[in-house]
Amino acid sequence: MNLAQKLLLGAALVFGGAYLYFSVLPYHFSPQYQPTKEDLELGGVYDKSKEHGTWHGQNTLSYYIPEPRKLAQVLGDTNGAAKRIEVDLTNQHVYAFEGDKKVFDFLISSGKWGLTPTGTFTIQYKTRSQLMKGGTQALGTYYYLPNVPYVQFFGNSEIPWSKGFSFHGTYWHNNFGHPMSHGCINMRIEDAEKLYYWATPELNGKASIKATSENPGTPVIIYGITPAS
């Protein structure tokens, strides 16, 4: 191998390593919560025995999730056109569309202690209430958050929904419009509720449901660059 070939190989290794570090590893080895089988078996039911949580060293009280309301009470009128969700990381907003009509525009908080992935996804699992825990106590980023409301996990062929990226309601901070999460899309509870009941898969009266070919999830497009916080 001559010098030019060695230099090309070295450059390929450097750029390949950089791509792996910045584009693959952050999403497959995220510091955020990833749902366990035991967590999912709770079935989206509010757990009154676990109402107290902690977020980065601060105690917090979980939000009580009311019984499901009729869609008209939450959503108002919708036109039934093809739905999609867009997440603008640069401006920290989520937009919901029916065809060309924008029906929702909400402030969010995306990843600060872990990256929020960009690309095209679908909603793949929905649950009304979910325990989330993760972070690191040594770094002051540990969190234990019971009864996180209106959770919608999204994923694609490269980043499965089981990696834990989701839209969800947030009761432990009110700093929306600024990055605050470990990779998820934090939303105000009332906004997360609207998006939860608006998006597919349809719940069909259940507290938790997984998308299927007969009941597919709404497409999600995430773009932009998360601002420095």
Task: Report strand order across the widest sheet.
Answer: 3-4-5-9-8-7-6-11
C-alpha geometry: globular
Rounded to the nearest angstrom, the radius of gyration is 19 Å
Sequence stretches where pLDDT stays below 50 over 5 or more residues: 11-29
Number of domains: 1
Number of helices: 4
Q: What number is the mean pLDDT?
A: 82
Account of the 3D structure:
- The longest helix is centred in the N-terminal third of the chain and has 26 residues, at 3-28.
- The relative contact order is 0.22.
- The protein has helices at 3-28, 37-40, 71-75, 189-198, and strands at 52-55, 58-61, 83-88, 93-98, 101-109, 119-134, 143-155, 166-169, 185-187, 208-210, 219-223.
- The protein contains 4 helices and 11 strands.
- It has a single domain, classed as L,D-transpeptidase catalytic domain-like, CATH 2.40.440.10.
- The chain has 229 residues and is of the alpha+beta class.
- The protein is globular and about 45 Å long.
- The chain has an 8-stranded mixed beta barrel.
- Strand 6 (119-134) and strand 7 form a beta hairpin.
Task: Write a short abstract of this structure.
This protein has 229 residues and is an alpha+beta fold.
Provide the fold topology.
Blueprint: H1 3-28, H2 37-40, E1 52-55, E2 58-61, H3 71-75, E3 83-88, E4 93-98, E5 101-109, E6 119-134, E7 143-155, E8 166-169, E9 185-187, H4 189-198, E10 208-210, E11 219-223
